[in-house]
Design a protein that fits this description.
The chain has 393 residues and is mainly α. It contains 21 helices and two strands.
Length: 393
């Protein structure tokens, strides 16, 4: 680990320790390390081992990636898991050996993995998701009736979780295969709301192909097919589709469609409490985040809209980390276009603090850091370190 990254790890540990109102003595004792070692780590004089980092993170109640600025080891875990994910879905439609877990145990494990996805913990996903997908598919093929429908829902959730890692780390072909498996499984779940959620995720294939007009058309078809928004879950499902449609309409350069879908999303968002519905965050806060996303998607001429939202509001900490981080990354892009480089860099640092793995793999974070470094060649060493960390140099 380079010296400057060792320093940043130590600083982050100290910052979170202070936020937890813990002394060095208390943290060292709880983490089963010596006080001298902790002091050395916090001042950047000593590099923590994986075991030490995980022990400190457990006491501070954060994932180790929140402490680790150098994400190379997390990257390698995700990339190393890709062949195993591919193998797990190779025979998705073939009845294999029976599952080893009962349905309730599998449900608990998949729910935990969904939590990792919302928190942008891709290294944790990589460790567990191949076996979860395999187990969910085996369960689907060895059950019937209501249990088969539940198993189908678990296949959708597990495949979506795997897709989050595959898509973020650039494995777009595998991402597309996982989405097709979601679409195959959802037909066996007999759940119209889950179909709407799957249509939301399918948009990734259109983003990846830059087929924005086709993606907008597909989402509008999904909106028309979704259940009437006369109860909370249905309103959230349709609202999320409108939210997604607004962004892809922005990417297509269709400002009118973007505004209309955003208005519909806002109306539905005001009807429901902010929550995760079938694995998708939706509510008033999520809609505001997408207002920034739409403005950035429409280009630099619309930057004022993004800045206006951010002037009055920032995401609350109870939103999924991935969504919070996305807001700050897109705001950084808008601030850069508006000639506010210092504010842009601060936004990138906030995004990194909230969800480091998500930020490091986000192309807009990389682009913004690269541009900032060109604009401020003579400035802050920390900017150069950030650009190196995010892969912009």
């Amino acid at each position: 680990m380079p010296a400057h990254l060792t320093n940043e790890v130590g600083q982050r540990i100290a910052t979170i320790r202070h936020a937890r109102r813990m002394t060095q003595t208390e943290l060292a004792r709880a983490a089963y390390i010596s006080l001298a070692m902790l002091k050395s780590i916090e001042r950047g004089a000593r590099r923590p081992s994986d075991a030490t980092l995980e022990s400190i993170a457990a006491v501070l109640v954060v994932d180790p990636s929140r402490l680790l600025m150098d994400s190379a080891r997390h990257d390698s875990r995700v990339h190393a898991a890709i062949p195993a994910i591919s193998a797990a879905i190779a025979a998705y439609d073939i009845r294999m050996d029976p599952p080893q877990q009962n349905l309730q145990e599998l449900q608990t494990a998949v729910d935990e993995a969904v939590g990792w996805r919302l928190a942008a913990q891709y290294a944790l996903i990589a460790r567990q998701i191949p076996s979860l997908i395999d187990e969910a598919l085996r369960t689907l093929h060895h059950t019937d009736g209501a249990q088969r429908q539940q198993a189908a829902r678990l296949v959708v959730a597990a495949a979506r979780t795997a897709d989050a890692a595959a898509y973020k780390y650039g494995h777009r072909d595998l991402s597309a295969r996982l989405i097709e498996i979601m679409r195959w499984a959802v037909r066996q779940a007999d759940d119209p709301l889950l179909e709407a959620s799957t249509a939301y995720v399918r948009t990734e294939t259109f983003f990846a192909a830059r087929a924005h007009k086709a993606g907008l058309h597909a989402l509008e078809q999904a909106i028309d097919a979704s259940p009437a928004p006369d109860e909370t879950q249905a309103a959230a499902a349709r609202g999320a589709l409108h939210m997604r449609a607004a962004v892809i309409a922005g990417r297509a350069g269709d400002a009118s469609a973007a505004d209309q879908h955003l208005a519909d999303a806002r109306r539905l968002g005001d009807q429901v409490p902010e929550d995760n519905y079938l694995g998708t965050a939706f509510g008033p806060h999520s809609v505001r985040i997408h207002e920034v996303s739409v403005a950035v998607s429409l280009g630099s001429d619309h930057v004022g809209r993004a800045l206006s939202v951010a002037k009055k509001w920032t995401p609350p900490s109870n939103l999924p980390e991935e969504r919070q981080s996305g807001f700050w990354i897109e705001l950084a892009r808008a601030q850069l276009w508006a000639g506010m480089p210092d504010h842009s860099f601060e936004s990138l640092k906030v995004a990194r603090f909230i969800a480091p793995q998500h930020t490091r793999e986000h192309p807009w974070a990389r682009d913004a850091a690269s541009t900032l470094r060109r604009l401020k060649r003579a400035d802050a060493e920390s900017l150069t370190h950030f650009a190196e960390w995010v892969g912009a140099v």
